[in-house]
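JOB MANIFEST
job_type = single_chain_structure
chain_count = 1
residues = 259
[input]
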Amino acid sequence: MNSRIQKKGSCLNLSKEPRCMTCSLSSLCLPLSLNLEDIDQLDSIIKRRQPLKKGEHLFRQGDSFDSVYAVRSGSLKNYIMTNDGEEQITNFHLPSELIGLDAIDCASYPVSAKALETTTVCEIPFFRLQELSNELPDLRRQIFSCMSKELRDDKQMMLLLSKKNAEERVATLLTNLSARFRRRGYSQYTFRLPMSRNEIGNYLGLAVETVSRVFTRFQSKQIIAVNGKEIHITNRQELLEVADLNDYDIETGKKLVAS
């Protein structure tokens, strides 16, 4: 069988299409220790999907699980439907991040994934990924690392919703997004929010009016400047203090040890 795929940051079987080695996200998606031959093997199993338009689903809760996906561009949200038939957002995904890992032990996806804007993804058939990860220990470690990060993020979200007030919740989300944009080579101070105020409130367990009031207070304190969906962090240190994250590494979620 011809093997020429891609990976979570690029994709495709056709030589004219982008591949992992030429993808700007490869340093985030790929284990740095993979050699060219290993990357070619990974390239051979990945499929590039047609772009999703805003509001389109990548998959729905209950769909049969057969692939995990890596975001190449754009953003998506995960959500579940409550018993009352309402949407509850559980996560937001940015470029280079994997979607679908929480379905590995299931026969179906436990959440839905919907595009927040025009979004492209790499599709990675899971049975092929399993086979390849058995041959490439570094790739297997990368998958475990991604799963570990998801577990850590879930725990942080539980803490966020159970212990923090409205200002702390919004500040934590903004600092988290700032760190994620920085990791992708973008500005950590100025970025566009792909989600609406209503979606932020849904995710953080706050009324949309509360979210708007917090943004207004942050602007009046000159912590941030807001222009539509564009956020400019003018006082990152104070934002960290409001989020109560001064003693934490935003990237890893680990408490810093005083030197």
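[summary]
DSSP finds eight helices and eleven strands in the chain.
The first helix runs from residue 26 to 29.
exit_status = 0
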